[in-house]
């Protein structure tokens, strides 16, 4: 005797209401599509609700994935891609050394060597002077005036910015050099580029219309990226040490970046000045993204409420 195949239909709660099969249910946006079907619901209405649940689930998945793709393509940089982390002490530490007048003089003159030279000149003048005490005091006073005049001329406060930059580059090179005299390693070159970028950006902030300097800084940033990418391929350990030292992160090195008007506006290089006007298409796009974020947020809220209902009714 043959038995006809049969399919059992239920007009009660869907299979998800069975405790044994719901142990794996987790709180997620797809749960927002959940349709609660009461016992005794007509079969036609039950099918309609299930179709609606399926349709809503597809829409939720589509919206969530669209938002994820957008956010993956528009991930903000962790730090300033030009100046790096403002909390990093690399450049400020170097500038403290540069401004130290007890050890530094303009034109890369060593202060201790200059003091020795001035002392030797004074001693020679005293030896060649008369033994008369009055004359010797006058000679000492003249030499002291010479010393003050020379140190005033060579004082970093009285020199131009170029001398300070040269000294800062020297200290930056010493901080990352692999051995004394190292000037060619990628991390040293990146440190030198970083100092030049900081000095360049200071000038750009003070001179909005100096497009030539802005272009130079842009090229320095791109060159620094290129150098550090090369270092990452050759020696990842030294690469991560170097970017941490310089206040940079991996994303600002590996991602495509151009220091254009958008950067200057976002990082407020010239304050709140508007450099890039928002077009109508950009406004529409931003509005669509905002609505998409709001919908996804609503999915999460509704999913949370549905999850709580299922917990109360012992469905999970």
Automatic annotation (TrEMBL):
Cross-referenced SUPFAM superfamilies: S15/NS1 RNA-binding domain
Similarity remark: Belongs to the universal ribosomal protein uS15 family.
GO cellular component, as recorded: cytoplasm; ribonucleoprotein complex; ribosome
Name of the protein described by the UniProt record: Mrps28 protein
Coiled coil regions in record: 95-159
An example Gene Ontology molecular-function term: structural constituent of ribosome
Organism: Candida orthopsilosis (strain 90-125) (Yeast)
Alphabetical UniProt keywords: Coiled coil, Ribonucleoprotein, Ribosomal protein
Any single biological process term in GO: translation
């Amino acid at each position: 005797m043959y038995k006809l195949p049969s399919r059992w239909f239920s007009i009660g709660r869907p299979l998800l209401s069975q405790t044994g099969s719901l142990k794996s249910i987790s709180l997620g946006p797809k749960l927002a599509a959940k349709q609660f079907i009461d016992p005794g619901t007509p079969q036609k209405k039950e099918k309609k609700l299930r179709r609606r649940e399926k349709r809503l689930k597809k829409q939720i998945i589509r919206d969530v994935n669209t938002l994820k793709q957008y956010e993956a393509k528009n991930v903000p940089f962790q730090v300033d891609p030009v100046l790096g982390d403002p909390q990093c002490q690399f450049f400020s530490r170097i500038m403290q050394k540069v401004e130290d007048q007890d050890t530094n003089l303009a034109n890369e003159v060593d202060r201790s060597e200059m003091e020795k030279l001035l002392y030797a000149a004074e001693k020679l003048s005293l030896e060649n002077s008369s033994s008369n005490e009055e004359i010797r005091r006058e000679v000492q006073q003249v030499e002291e005036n010479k010393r003050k005049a020379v140190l005033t001329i060579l004082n970093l406060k009285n020199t131009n910015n170029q001398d300070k930059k040269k000294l800062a580059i020297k200290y930056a090179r010493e901080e990352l050099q692999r051995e004394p005299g190292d000037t060619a390693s990628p991390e040293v070159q990146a440190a030198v580029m970083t100092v030049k970028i900081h000095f360049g950006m200071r000038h750009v902030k003070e001179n909005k219309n100096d497009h030539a300097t802005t272009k130079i800084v842009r090229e320095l940033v791109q060159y620094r990226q290129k150098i550090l990418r090369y270092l990452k391929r050759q020696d990842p350990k030294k690469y991560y040490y170097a970017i941490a030292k310089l206040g940079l992160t991996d994303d600002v090195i590996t991602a495509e970046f151009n220091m254009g008007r958008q950067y200057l506006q976002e990082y407020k290089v010239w304050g709140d000045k508007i450099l890039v006007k928002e077009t109508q298409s950009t406004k529409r796009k931003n509005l669509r993204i905002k609505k998409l974020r709001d919908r996804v947020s609503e999915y999460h809220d509704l999913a949370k409420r549905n999850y709580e209902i299922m917990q109360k009714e012992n469905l999970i």
